[in-house]
Predict the structure of Putative pterin-4-alpha-carbinolamine dehydratase.
Amino acid sequence: MSRYRERMATVLSAEQLSTALADLPGWSGGTDGISRTITAASFPAGISLVTAVADAAETMNHHPDIDIRWTDVTFRLSTHSEGGVTEHDLALAARINELADLATR
């Protein structure tokens, strides 16, 4: 069983989330979910980003909702089992930002 499944996830308060989002460029939302849209250089670049995020999400055992519209890729995060945003979502958002930075260079 993954470490993420073993630890209890607690939904963040609005204040905790606001503080966390200040350190996650491009992300916005509320305690029920956060999202970020990234514009890739091309459709294949966007798909490559999705593949990289899928690999990271699988490793973390925490999966985003993903919407692809040509070069715009939107990631939505929420810990569905807990009914809102938890530390798991923040960790994945940070990883998505790292991958996006690499993909958009």
Remarks:
- DSSP finds four helices and four strands in the chain.
